[in-house]
Amino acid sequence: MFENRQKRTELAELGEFKLINRLTKNIANRQKSTILGIGDDAAILNFDQQQVLLSTDLLVEGVHFDLSYMPLKHLGYKAVMVNLSDIAAMNAIPTQITVGLAVSNRFSVEALEEIYAGMQLACDKHQVDLVGGDTTSSTSGLILAISVLGTANPKDIVKRSTAKQGDLIVVSGDLGAAYAGLLLFEREKAIFAKDPTIQPDLAGYEYVLERQMLPEARVDMVHRFKEMDLIPTSMIDISDGLASEIIHLCEDSLLGCTIYEEKIPIDPQTVTVADLFKIHPVTCALNGGEDYELLFTVSQKDFEKINGQGEFYIIGHMNETGSERTLITNANESIPLTAQGWDGMKKKD
Amino acid sequence: MFENRQKRTELAELGEFKLINRLTKNIANRQKSTILGIGDDAAILNFDQQQVLLSTDLLVEGVHFDLSYMPLKHLGYKAVMVNLSDIAAMNAIPTQITVGLAVSNRFSVEALEEIYAGMQLACDKHQVDLVGGDTTSSTSGLILAISVLGTANPKDIVKRSTAKQGDLIVVSGDLGAAYAGLLLFEREKAIFAKDPTIQPDLAGYEYVLERQMLPEARVDMVHRFKEMDLIPTSMIDISDGLASEIIHLCEDSLLGCTIYEEKIPIDPQTVTVADLFKIHPVTCALNGGEDYELLFTVSQKDFEKINGQGEFYIIGHMNETGSERTLITNANESIPLTAQGWDGMKKKD
Questions:
Q1: Which residue of A44, A100, A236 is in closest CB contact with B41?
Q2: Would the CB atoms of A51 and B57 count as touching at under 8 Å?
Q3: pLDDT digit string (tens) for A16-68?
Q4: Between chains, do A138 and B60 touch, taking CB under 8 Å as contact?
Q5: Which positions 125-154 of B are in contact with A (Cβ < 8 Å)?
Q6: Which residues belong to CATH 3.90.650.10 in chain B?
Q7: Superfamily assignment of A168-346 in CATH?
Q8: Does domain A11-153 have CATH number 3.30.1330.10?
Q9: Which residues, in sequence order, are CB contacts of A21 under 8 Å at separation 6+?
Q10: What is the pLDDT of residues B292-315, one digit of tens each?
């Protein structure tokens, strides 16, 4: 639907080594911890006295992304950002990634170059080095497997399991927009399937579309916390929806919580789209996912540090062990929070 | 063909979190460098003064493995070993892995448990910690994405690019057997497709079948080199076949080489199978791949350290920059070595 017709070089024309050379020729290393990048059996890294964070994510075509509306460059960008977000969620700075790419012959060399261009853009933004990977064929579709390393001083690392009773629950930005963007893309795809002559009608929805297509890992928050001399008591990134992530913090910290509907930040454009689809906007925030904002808890003694900063939203508080996980609605009803489970598996059911 | 009928629990019955809990419930961390394993946004690691090695591999169903003759437990074992081999090839000790698993609904929970059981067996053997990962659905087939970390003292790390003219070329074991095993499995599969009542006839070929199904990463060699006070001048593991790997060492070290057919170690069972399929046994060694032996170069001054050790095979020597990469046959003919390219892409062509 947003197809870009250009030169097509078949993967078989190049072969493995030429392909890897072509995809990685512009990659330069910038991290002091990168001793040797792409090109040997393994990358060589040196983290000195820092602790190392490691995370892996898979993105599977038809499950996590749909190439009928996701440009390949955006896909590469998003795939990296999703991984950097996991490191930010530990209050750490991402430093290196490796990229595993499985592709069917349906994809050209130029298509893979687009994906790499997007990945490099995301790496450039955060000074992350792409230090290795594997490119292979797949019997169908496109799979991206990215692993990310990051570093932090041991005392700065924030886990999910360390929230305390009475801590404030905070988010770093508005929620539900990425899901609103997805709803619009899915609608346009359905319209296009019926009548390919109809052009996409997405004007006025730029914010929610960008939140879906080009999410930003909140690595800036890790720097911001340092400036503010603030260490959250627990943290997670919002990939699956606010409800599911809050439940993670509660379960891992063995606590209950209360959050307030009126405190959940939702952009007006998200509200407009939710109305259009006859969904309650808070449902987009609770169950939508893919916002990649940080959800964290802070001690009440740090209230003054975050209050009135504009960039933080206090949405509730952690309660004693054994208590419920509850949403207080604007009508002052108390509703138990439930995880919507596995977005990956969900879409297959 | 070697199917195992047992209880089948659908993935959808469990959901993401219960599935991950079930797959990872027996995983214990043993490495001093593992501070926090599975269960947060990222694993936390501490490598102190050691350097860190990082590598990633993808294994795709229908490209890298065929479940009609590869039991899932063996697949898990092999997937880990293939990755550990990359760390051994840097003369380093593997310490942690992360596992990305994309599966279609065709697979049951029990099937994934089998894969994990195989992975844990390989991890146990080398005291490697499984510290994280991602499990998601795939639109078709099974994909395994494994990343591995390892450590070494900076002075011990061996790259591909540091061989010197005159260095001896050495391999750590016999070659071509894994490919001979593959030939047998493919033959049995073809027979089974024609007549499913015929039982596999694989007696007497145990060694080559095991080399294909249960390869061993030569991490023991890393310890052995330390005992012998030997640091190879360059090293690579043999995943794609001897010819292709030697060319890597030559290209990265900017050298030529000569190897001798009569020096290449080939097991008698490999010769028997090669004869059966009317293939020259040395072709299995040169182009077969998947042996996961180490190919390395040593300085001539270290000749006495490796000569007559039984466990090492000196097969040739590195020559000056600009010279050919040559095989001297038993008939004393000189043949240029050529890489067979990309086994992943190959099988699709």
A1: A236
A2: no
A3: 667 777 777 777 787 788 888 887 778 888 888 788 999 999 999 988 999 98
A4: yes
A5: 131-134, 136-141, 143, 145, 147-150, 154
A6: 168-346
A7: PurM-like C-terminal domain (3.90.650.10)
A8: yes
A9: none
A10: 999 999 999 999 999 877 789 999
